[in-house]
Sequence to fold (192 residues):
Amino acid sequence: MRHIPTALRRSVPTTPTQWLRAGVLLAALLAVALGIAARALAGPPQTAPRLLGQAAPAFALPAEQGGRQLPGTITLAAQRGHPTLLVFFYTLCPRCLSEVQAAQSATHDRATRGASVLYISSPAERPDIVDAYLGRLGISAPALLDAGGQLAARYRIRFYPTTVLVDARGVVRGVWMGETSAATLTQALAAL
Fold:
């Protein structure tokens, strides 16, 4: 057996705690390396802003309000004739709280009379949790349920919250990812 230098012997894990620390460190390094590789291979993100100026993807989603599922579906086509904010949110997202409130405030402003807002929950959400969340915020509008995530995929939603402004003709006129102020949304709605 060859002689192992003292400095090297000290760096080799010998106790279960040292092995655990070494394993966690190795796993963290591997996760970082995989993340870098995935970003490099993914290419540019296909996010919602690429929809600007294009017809908004049509949809028909089930909705829940007041603890019960509403009959039928809610469609984007039914919103034609007035501007609509689509708010993609997730109840555990801290930034989504202010975005949901900003959209509600913007559509209740005198300058944006006739505008509406549709709240679209994350695919991972249970309907009862979404309903309780909106209820706590004093929002009586129904929550649209994107259970399979197909709508989020069609709108290229990568980040929550994301708010999409659709004009009266059904064309995407604005996309905001992350928190947006009510003033910004009100101004964009009023400009239409």
Notes: The first strand starts at residue 60 and ends at 61. Helices lie at 6-11, 16-42, 94-107, 127-136, 150-154, 182-191. Residues 51 and 98 are 24 Å apart (CA to CA). DSSP finds six helices and nine strands in the chain.
